[in-house]
From TrEMBL:
InterPro entries: Lysozyme-like_dom_sf, MltB-like, MltB_2, Peptidoglycan-bd-like, PGBD-like_sf, PGBDSf, SLT_2. Residues 37-328 form the Transglycosylase SLT domain. Residues 350-404 form the Peptidoglycan binding-like domain. Pfam families: PG_binding_1, SLT_2. This is Lytic murein transglycosylase. SUPFAM superfamilies: Lysozyme-like, PGBD-like. CDD domains: Slt35-like.
Length: 405
């Protein structure tokens, strides 16, 4: 299965950009491409049957399946513009979502407590993922999964991946957990209360209610919540360990140490002056790294191995912090106290590529130009920042790009 539960991670599009891009793919082009869809289904039928799908199951699942032009538009027109983490968290952990989460915990508290007892995953973490994915089940997606996955397997950017997901969706139907009519979700194939891809469902979904079906689609969220806990437990959730703790860094802190690869016990960090927001040393829950998601001007977090477990659901730092912080709020904690550089903005894809190109030309090799701020780019950026007297936080900001220009 893929590294994360869902096929890819992209924070919400800016509405105006999304609306403009929705018109970017010519309807006539999509209509032309759709003509080959019936022939593709005929060819795929043989491949699916070769993987164990019964002819009757296939034919019933594909009865009435149509090419979904809107899915292709969405797949091709994903914006290069993303929200900065502070805007993302403002909506992801809004007061409304916190209050709705507390109401959901009150309503399903007994079930979530039993799930926590069985899998060892904090009920607030499970509830937070539920809140982040579908606003506690209020919007689980209405796209027909077989239609969407077939469209993406036929004409998507990652056809092989989505064909595998489509076969897995047929296996779910064949097992009797649901039927094609009730198998709905997002346009990209994520399903149910907590948005499982079919492959993740097959590997990790559980029948917690004991009714013989792993039902993540119905109004009852029990199986979906238990499946989410089972998923996190499988990837090594440590009971009693936080995902992370907001911390304050001492004056003169060596920001080169704020790197996910630099892990120390909290007591070791405390000796360097790293404290929680109350000025106390963080308990020794396990080895931890210092994360600065918005650089030295933003909030700082000490993150533990459970941070990496949540990454298996969705690898974006903003998402993981959103889940963790929402869970903390559901436990009664307060808002993030550190300031965010709200006068800054996230770099667009073209700007990230420009940053990499300029760093490399300046003698700080990023080992390629792909628009992704990975470890090589961060390392090159830190080296550049150190060389020109900036704080070496490795944060790809507009200020650094302007300096390089």
């Amino acid at each position: 299965m893929s590294r994360s539960l869902r096929p890819e991670t992209r924070p919400d599009l800016r509405p105006a950009v999304a609306a403009a891009l929705a018109e970017a793919v010519a309807p006539d082009t999509i209509a032309d491409e759709a003509r080959g869809f019936p022939g593709w289904i005929a060819g795929f039928r043989g491949r699916a049957l070769a993987q164990g799908i019964a002819p009757g199951v296939f034919d019933r699942a594909f009865e009435g399946v149509t090419f979904q032009a809107d899915v292709i538009r969405r797949d091709r027109n994903q914006s290069e513009f993303v929200k900065p983490i502070w805007d993302y968290l403002d909506s992801a952990v809004s007061e409304t979502r916190v209050q709705n989460g507390r109401a959901a915990l009150a309503q399903y508290g007994a079930v979530l407590t039993r799930i926590e007892a069985r899998y060892g995953v904090d009920k607030e973490i499970v509830a937070a993922i539920w809140g982040m994915e579908t606003s506690y089940g209020s919007y689980r997606g209405s796209a027909p999964i077989v239609d969407s996955l077939a469209t993406l397997a036929y004409d998507g950017r990652r056809a092989a991946f989505f064909e595998t997901q489509l076969v897995d969706a047929l296996k779910i139907i064949q097992a009797g957990d649901t039927d094609a009519r009730h198998m709905t979700g997002s346009w990209a194939g994520a399903m149910g209360h907590t948005q499982f891809m079919p492959s993740s469902y097959l590997a990790h979904a559980v029948d917690f209610t004991g009714d013989g079906r792993r039902d993540i689609w119905s109004d009852d969220p029990t199986d979906a919540l238990a499946s989410t806990a089972a998923y996190l437990a499988h990837f090594g959730w440590t009971k009693g360990q936080p995902w992370g703790v907001e911390v304050q860094l001492p004056r003169g802190f060596d920001h080169r140490l704020a790197d996910r690869s630099v892990k120390r016990m909290p007591s070791d960090w405390a000796r360097l002056g790293v404290r929680d927001m109350g000025g106390r040393a963080v308990r020794d829950y396990g080895r931890a790294a210092i994360l600065l998601p918005a650089g030295a001007r933003g909030a700082a977090f000490m993150v533990f191995d459970n941070f990496r477990v949540i990454e298996r659901y969705n690898p974006a730092d903003a998402y993981v912090i959103g889940v963790g912080h929402l869970a903390d709020r559901l436990k009664g904690g307060g808002p993030i106290r550190g300031a965010w550089p709200r006068d800054d903005r996230a770099l667009a894809s073209a700007e990230r590529k420009e940053l990499q190109e300029r760093l490399t030309r300046a003698g700080f090799d990023t080992n390629g130009v792909d628009g992704r701020i990975g470890p090589d780019t961060v390392s090159a950026l830190r080296a550049y920042q150190s060389a020109v007297g900036l704080i070496p936080d490795g944060y790809a900001s507009m200020a650094v790009l302007r300096r390089l220009r």
